[in-house]
Amino acid sequence: MKTIEFSSEFDQKVLQYLRRNYSKIFSKGWNYNNSTLAVFVHEEYVLRTSSNQTITIIFEPTGIGGKSRITIISSGGGQGLFGFDWGSQNAAENTLVKRIKEITASNY
Fold first, then answer.
1. Number of domains into which the chain is organized
2. What confidence score (pLDDT) does residue 108 get?
3. Interval 47-80: pLDDT, tens
4. In degrees rounded to 5, what are phi and psi of residue 98?
């Protein structure tokens, strides 16, 4: 599980990216107090483990200092008796964290 916080000025760009790229299975957003809370569930096939894994993303305003937060949870990428994921779940989380940092960089 990974968490990343960023300025809420980038909320619409981040939400647009998540809707476009991470809503394969489920996407739902709720608006309240000029903020958005959203949940995305994405599934992808991972070649290194020959299995499907899911990535669940929770988008929420922190309510503190104009910040928003994304929590990324990857699961189901393991195979075999012991469920080894060979790093695929961590890699999926890191890929999204890197992309969100690119989107929320002030020079984007």
1. 1
2. 44
3. 766 778 889 999 999 988 899 999 999 887 656 4
4. -60, -45
